[in-house]
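Before surveying the methods themselves, we first show a specimen of the format, giving the amino acid sequence and backbone structure tokens:

:::
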Amino acid sequence: MALNQARRIGREAILLLLSDQPDKELTRLNEDNWQACLGKVGSMEAHKVVAAIETAAKKNGLIKTDVYRESHALYHAIMEALQGVTRGQVQLGSVHRTVGLTFAILRGNPYENNEEGEWMAVSLYGTIGAPVKGSEHEAIGLGINHI
């Protein structure tokens, strides 16, 4: 049941997110049997962030739309990552905060034993702050969940 140190899903999701050469990273991850995609979202509403990430996952074939457990796993990974960005309080517009985020979604098996199944990681990086230009700061979040 040991994690494969060469396949740490959270580390890979963050490296993809922060890469200066995302196309090369996506190619490398694909060659290593990971499924991945990148996207951007900005909003004062958390549900719009969730919707943008779910839409990207569906459009890029990372989750099957007719299999509930896949959407459910993605949702929990998103919410965990959002908690990191929002410092535990997943509230945006209602407390006058807005985010501008880049996200990465990664799917695969991080374990040595293939029977452990697939996992999903969502990493978020960008800014959060008052909805006034220049009143924001950087933030990062990571969420990992089994499918």
Summary: The longest helix spans residues 68-85. Residues 5-146 form a domain with the Hut operon positive regulatory protein HutP fold (CATH 3.40.1510.10). The mean pLDDT is 92. The chain has one domain: 5-146.
